User: What shape does this take?
Amino acid sequence: MQILSYIFSPAGILSYAGLAAMLIASLVKGKNMKTILLLVFTGSMLVATSYLITPDGINGAISCYIGAAQTIINYFFDRKKKPLPKWLIATYAIAFVVLNLIPSFITGFNWLCLLAIAASLTFILCIGQKVGSKYRFWTLVNMCLWCLYDVLSGSFSVLFTHGIQLVFAVIGMLIYDRNNKK
Assistant: This one.
């Protein structure tokens, strides 16, 4: 019964809206990343806000807000067909690590921040891809890490969202990527 209360909570509603955007991103066909990046930006903002409502979701919120900012920056590079500078990718990684460690200094060390950092670093790989197939592969890795974080942090509404994203990443891989290899 407690899981149902999470699913129908305000955090759940926000995460489902984020889920819708992320599902569409997982199923976008073709090599154009612009549409995928805009959908990921929208989904990240909504999921980040849903993490703020859960008790131990601060690192998830931090990571998703940074990820949303990263996604919109990548969108502008992709739109102009320019590669991401290595210094920018390094800045993303540093921001994820530093901003996820700050709550640990304030409230005491929390092992969840390390998991959020690992998931965030795979997100850099995820949205830095040039084609949908590589995006879906890194999404799969990313969602596995976020699902583990969600279970350990008690963010069940977001777990539901990430679990479905994981399934749709696999479906997208089976539909588009498996056929492209033949």
Q: What stands out?
A: The chain is about 85% helix and 0% strand.
